[in-house]
Amino acid sequence: MFNSNRPKITLERLKKSAFERFLSIISIFLFVGSVVFLVVMWSELPGQVPAHFGITGEVTRSGSKWELVVLLFVGVGLYWLLHVFEKYPHLHNYPIEITESNAEEAYRISRSLLGYLKNLILILFAIGMINSLIIALGWGEGIGLVLLPLVFLGTGLAIIRALVKLMKVSS
């Protein structure tokens, strides 16, 4: 699991791109906005709010409004965990052998993927919370079919893209 033979490269050499920094700012802004929305609307929320959605976006289970607070903490916890892992690319799992010659590029790709997934998770948790609030407050039907494809496409395409880039680095 921990391959101590891999080269260690300082994070200064693995700087984030402008897009990565922009995505981080947007994801944090959206998540904080959803938390503020939850706090502001808390007293207006009914005791039961949508807690689970089916594949077509229909509400399949309702739960206490406190479950939204749990959702908030899970989102922050996942974000923090991925943020920490992002800083140690030499410990990541790779489908290629890491050598001195390919380490910097492989680490950059892996760090970038984790950063993207970290921010996507935060955005999806914000959207999920806002979706539950909108339905619970009776303001609309929610986003329905949109969320699931967003999850699969957002994560799947990023992972495939990173794997293709890593394979090019190894050849």
UniProtKB/TrEMBL annotation:
UniProt domain DUF1648: residue ranges: 30-72
Swiss-Prot/TrEMBL keywords: Membrane, Transmembrane, Transmembrane helix
Transmembrane portions of the chain: 21-43, 63-82, 120-139, 145-164
Keyword Transmembrane: yes
Pfam families referenced in this protein's UniProt entry, alphabetically: DUF1648
The protein's name in its UniProt record: DUF1648 domain-containing protein
Organism, as annotated: Halalkalibacter okhensis
Lineage: Bacteria, Bacillati, Bacillota, Bacilli, Bacillales
